[in-house]
Design goal:
Layout: H1 2-16, H2 24-51, H3 61-84, H4 88-96, H5 101-132
Helix pairs in contact: 1-2, 1-4, 2-3, 2-5
Length: 133
Amino acid sequence: MKPLRYLFFRIWDWKQNDRRERQPLLVAWISVTVLICWNILGLIKVSEQLLEAEWFSGLGRARLSQYLLIAYLLVFWVVRAIFIGQHQYKSFVREFSSETRTQRSRRTVYIWIYIVATVALPIAMAVIWARQH
């Protein structure tokens, strides 16, 4: 959970220092939720590829959309409960404010690798899956 706490903290901290941003907490909340949902999608795509299965092929497009919306809302609520409820995000300042410049640089690279991989994996798996079928 520490990497996700750090990601939440960095997005929140970055947007909090942006004078144009009125809702830095909301931006961090939505960003982490979207990334977690993309992680779930990536896991589904990888498992479909490895097991040569199509988990949701029997569902219609409308039913699949409903399930995805429910899953997104569930993750949205869980992220809120874990990171925002009872002002948990404020404890992240204490946890991460003492990082050294080297740690911050290294963690920034890790964050960007995570974001790029999170977005690229489901797309790459969908392309691979489409070419095989």
